[in-house]
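In full, the data:

***
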Amino acid sequence: MSEQIPPGVFDILPNDEQHPWRNSHLWDYVETKIRETARDFGFQEIRTPAFERTELFVRSVGEGTDIVQKEMYTFEDKGGRSMTLRPEGTAPVMRCVMENHLDQQASVQKLFYISPMFRYERMQAGRYRQHHQFGVESIGYGSPEADAEVIDLLYTLSHRLGLKGLTVQLNSIGTSDTRSTFTEALKKYLQQHKNDLSEDSQRRLETNTLRILDSKDPKDQEIVANGPSILDFLDDEGREHFEKVQEHLDQIGVPYEINSNLVRGLDYYNRTVFEILAHELGAQNSIGGGGRYDGLLKQLGGPDLPAMGFGAGIERIIQTMLLQEVETPEPFHPTLFLIALGEKARKSCFSILHDLRQDGIPCQMDLSSRKLGKVMHYADHVKATFVAVIGENELESQIVELKRMSTGKTIQAPLDHLSRILSVESRSDEFFKIWEEMNRPFEHPTEAEFFINRLNEAINATKGVTHELQQAMDEMKDLL
């Protein structure tokens, strides 16, 4: 084949048996959980372009970072302007907030995004040149509670997706003054061990010393472990802020461990930083992380607002779910599959198909002229709940036989009432969940009173509608 996908990227397919994490129904499931969780925490979705002016990332991410120096996909457009495919999500959101004056609409902005990111990286497990990221940006809150809320959001999402054994790592890298003083001390210490550092860390010693703390090289880690700790350099305000973040996490039961070598890879971070690790992923074991970046908006020419956020890799989340054998939903399937026998039935089935879809019932029909056996095999392949064969007899009697594919049992159903029958079937799981909740014993009088009042409101509303319908019927009778 002459046309092949570029290295470092991948397709997401309806069914990929070799790479199950690429199955589209899993992506849809995880993205749905992301949106539900983000909205439960009060975050609203934002979408920014796939590319921005290169200067935006150089100013925000940092000229000495690996992202800017080695990983960005940068190109010159036809107008001679330097553009870069989005390597991370925070800078574009900050640009969007400033350009659209969102801070003037409300002093607090809680935003989330699900977007592809682009970085030219060495290909390895969990790292791709186009990867997909879920991120949040909490802008306007500088309190420790805001830090704990953002960490809790990612932890809650992980819990809702069924992930187990995750480690929340936490650190504070203080203010720019703190980092400057600490960097000097760290650099002085590392200079004594320069010849023993890895090649990357020797280069970073001159360009971005703090990134050596995040090295995955065992020898580097051993050297760093015996060096100075940034926590010893925090000022009183920074120390108090970090202690309160820990108190809030303890209060809501989010487990964590302090890692004084955690720094993150972008220049704009300050104070709280964190990561959530899944040990099944090997060396690249972070499913998400972030921190506070007070001052970034001002640095980019906007208002001086505090901010806190994170980015989480959707690929890594799904891969961890599969490695942990988390229970995941089945692929989407039609409630009904129609098979028409003859041209007249085919025409009728097409109308039935349209009407059922308008009522929100997922259904398909065979649009070919294949033999019945092959069509039944295809209906089984798409995992239809019911199959109905419609021919002249069914059209004449207006009665159709619904065959439940999982058991082989059949039921008779009038064509005029198919919609209601299948609607109950497709929503039965949701109904039983509500019914189960309603039948749980009330544990407090106030709780019972709330539901009694709610039911009375519903009954009275129904009585009102019934009275209005009776009046309408009486008026129609008078006309007749």
About this structure: The longest helix spans residues 445-479. The CA atoms of residues 231 and 260 lie 7 Å apart. The chain has a mean pLDDT of 86. The longest strand covers residues 109-118.
